[in-house]
């Protein structure tokens, strides 16, 4: 989070998750509007990284000053991916994150589904985050469980539900200091659903003293430099 300008906070968020986990939908919930393409697919909907941003005037008060939040969210292709190689996804994410967040990433959101059992693909995300950002990713990460509406419909409380999850899931939860958040991306009011999620991410950023994660040197190679040229022509969308 930049502290140089009084009355302004920046939050750079990187979304990661396996296919159809609800990454794009979670990005939309964070932004409070439908910006990223999100739909049911037997393949993968998001094929390229895409940045959207939004400004929230007067989102919070800091030291008595009304403060604007400048949120930037980078949506990414699924990892692992049935259409793109793992190396390609890693390179694409590394290139895009380095380009759109030159000052670094404040918070990582690992998206997984609450309505299906945690699986091996989810575990691979740990390696992806570690490889892209180094070991510090853990203190900047929130595990987001999408499809919380299914859990609510089943009449189970979220803590009770998590207690029933596999050992691998518990290990992941422990590795991010038990930071998790259930989200219903199908909610009629994404702004209302997104607010507590945003507040949690701001807390994570503040707890890590507003430090920022950089893409590990060496992750962006010549191949991805070519991809970067392509990204330059893919103008980000300014929402407000
Ligand atoms: N009911 C419900 N549906 C959700 C939720 N989150 C996502 N979905 C649905 O799940 C499907 C996949 O969501 P996406 O946001 O496209 O998932 P993704 O991870 O971006 O998918 P890929 O880009 O294909 O990897 C869509 O039909 C969403 O509407 C949720 O919290 N509740
Ligand atoms: Mg997507």
Automatic annotation (TrEMBL):
Gene3D superfamilies: P-loop containing nucleotide triphosphate hydrolases (3.40.50.300). Coiled coil: none annotated. InterPro entries: G_AIG1, GIMA/IAN/Toc, P-loop_NTPase. GO terms for molecular function: GTP binding. It comes from the Eukaryota. SUPFAM superfamilies: P-loop containing nucleoside triphosphate hydrolases (SSF52540). Belongs to the TRAFAC class TrmE-Era-EngA-EngB-Septin-like GTPase superfamily. AIG1/Toc34/Toc159-like paraseptin GTPase family. IAN subfamily. This is GTPase IMAP family member GIMD1. It comes from Megalops atlanticus.
